[in-house]
Hints:
By secondary structure, the chain is α+β, with helices and mostly antiparallel strands. The chain has helices at 3-8, 10-25, 31-43, 81-88, 129-147, 152-156, 164-172, 221-239, 244-259, 453-456; strands spanning 47-53, 59-66, 75-76, 92-96, 99-108, 111-120, 177-179, 184-186, 198-204, 208-216, 265-273, 278-284, 289-293, 296-300, 319-322, 346-347, 360-361, 397-400, 410-416, 419-424, 434-437, 440-442.
Amino acid sequence: MTGVARINDTLIGAVAAAVAAAVVDAPAHAAASTAAAALAAHLRANSAVVWQVDYVMRELHSVGSWPAEHVGDPAAVTGSPIGDVFTHQRTTLLPAGASERLLVPLTCRGHRIGVLEMTGAPGHWPPLTDTVLGCAQLLAPLLWEAGRDNDVQEQRRRSARLSLPAEMQWQLLPTRGLTTPQFSVYAQLEPAQLITSDLYDWSYDGTHLTLAVLDATGEGIMASQASELALTALRNARRAQLDFDNCVSLADQALHDQYSGQLEVAALIVEHNTHTHTTTYIRAGTPQLLLHHHGQLTAADPPPDPPLGAAELTPYRQHHIDLPPRRARPAGHRRGAHRPQPPRRTIRHHPHRTNTQHPRTTRLGHPPRHHPRHPPTRRTTPPRRRQHPDPPTPNQLTTTTSPPPRTHRCVPFRLGRGDQLEVFRRWPQGWGGRAVLGGTARPPRPRAFACCARNFW
């Protein structure tokens, strides 16, 4: 059931609309607590808690709960049930003593905000899971917007104090993720509390996806201001609907006019057309573009142009890459079917045995190829296997095991000079037999097939 279908349902839509209306009417600093109280009242929950992840993405902190005293300690992103729901983005129902806990991720267009936790009586949540999911979809953007207008949620989701340059940088950054039917983008700055001159940006207008990664030379307030000026100039030119190369030239000119070449900003600006699947990028400085396409990782390493602000009126070269979309696998497609298969090998029966099976090939489904000197013999009854085989002669190599299941067959392989080797394929219990060569026993190597005695041993 999709998210749209959940919200459009009559009952689910009524509950979600009532909760969303309560959050919109509440003050910004009490949005999370109001959402928890409204959910608990409409769904008859024992408690409700709204968790949000911190800047470092190591802990989730409670920013609103009902009852108010039900706050709890921070939950680790790694190794806790709440952290697993946030990491894997899946709804989880867990027993909690005499009650049940329902954990639902809070995500808005790919941006992971936190987790919604609700507790109730055993058996209370399975019929209401879709209702809680519909409410979480409406609450995620409302809680994110409310957190930008007050400091209560910001204070609760900070595990440590941010430096002044980091405070400046985080106010300019977009969300950590963006997901559409065509692509998914995620980013994170480390160390999140001490960043000084690193910035990233993206924008999507339905046709063009624009990505930018910037890094100013130096550290401290001056480097932060230089990177902020470059990012603001790129956004200003993009929103003025200028061409891709003119946006980069405008940012370069703004930096050079302000710092006269004393501060530079290395940048990698990429523009991808989701309709034509063509990518254009400009490499200004040291950042490098790595392409991971169809399982292959390649480095697009053209000669870099000067960083932004290094010189006046710097011409920047555009580089183009074609990135066709990944082809969808047809129904019934088997992974690895496109790989080249090894040549077929005919396995003949031993000339001195009368109860051998019909010659077969190693790849099932192909007709057998008979040897003119050893035509196949028709067998009316299945061969009888000896329970106690005779001891091998010094020049005979055999493998003695217990009979395999009926679903598996024994394939004799002719080695030459009267030697014979029997190999069992796909035995679930493993290779439980022993190989005897001149009376000396040793365990065989676990290979699927034997091509020759030298390769097998």
